[in-house]
Design a protein that fits this description.
Organism: Punica granatum (Pomegranate)
Low-confidence stretches: none
Strand order of the largest sheet: 1-3-4-5-6-7-8-9
Keywords: Apoplast, Secreted, Signal
InterPro entries: Allene_oxi_cyc_Dirigent, Dirigent
CATH architecture of the largest domain: Beta Barrel
Family: Belongs to the plant dirigent protein family.
Number of helices: 1
Strand content: over 45%
Number of strands: 9
Protein name: Dirigent protein
CATH class of the largest domain: Mainly Beta
């Protein structure tokens, strides 16, 4: 019995020592959220509009690459666009601007209008000035209501997770104008 207790004590000491070595290495260590000044996790709802100008003298959606077969695809498969949309509080172009939505859109489906979107919502006004929310996901462009995941953020939105509901508020393809409504639900510290 005494031998078993000695072996158990030795095993426990080795186990906890190795756990401490794993927890802190030359390049990584485990921290508590409080050590970074992180307090209560909050849920914030953001509501705004993105204004896209696809044509005209100052477009904010520009095709930067495409495959040789893209022009033959009914769904623009293989095209890559970059985006720099103003973020506005209302649907009218004269609404107050609170940031920019900067994105890369890759038309990634051969069967429907679906784009792989990587978006940074960069806020420039109010308490979110200098903060970003990052969205990455599949956007079914002509579906009435789309949902995309929030995968990160910076500033006020550090450690952000959540989701976005977006819909097309207004579209005039002849004039090259699209207004998108965004509802962003984001957890952050």
């Amino acid at each position: 019995m005494a031998m078993s207790l000695a072996k158990l004590s030795l095993f426990a000491m080795l186990f906890f020592s190795s756990t401490l070595l794993i927890a802190k290495s030359d390049y990584a260590e485990i921290l508590l959220p409080e050590e970074l000044g992180l307090k209560t996790r909050k849920l914030t709802h953001l509501h705004f509009y993105l204004h896209e100008n696809i044509t005209g003298p100052f477009p904010n959606v520009i095709r930067v690459a495409q495959a040789e077969t893209t022009d033959k695809s009914p769904f623009s498969f293989g095209a890559v666009n970059v985006v720099d949309d103003p973020i506005l509080v209302g649907p009218d172009r004269s609404s107050k601007q609170i940031g920019r939505a900067q994105a890369v859109m890759a038309f990634a489906s051969q069967n429907d209008f679906a784009v792989l979107m990587a978006i940074n919502l960069a806020f420039t006004e109010g308490k979110y000035n200098g903060s970003t929310v990052t969205i990455l996901g599949r956007n079914m462009v002509f579906t009435e209501l789309r949902e995309l995941p929030v995968v990160g953020g910076s500033g006020v939105f550090r450690f952000a997770t959540g989701y976005v509901k977006t819909s097309t508020h207004f579209m005039d393809l002849k004039a090259g104008i699209v207004v998108l409504e965004y509802d962003v639900y984001v957890f952050h510290f």
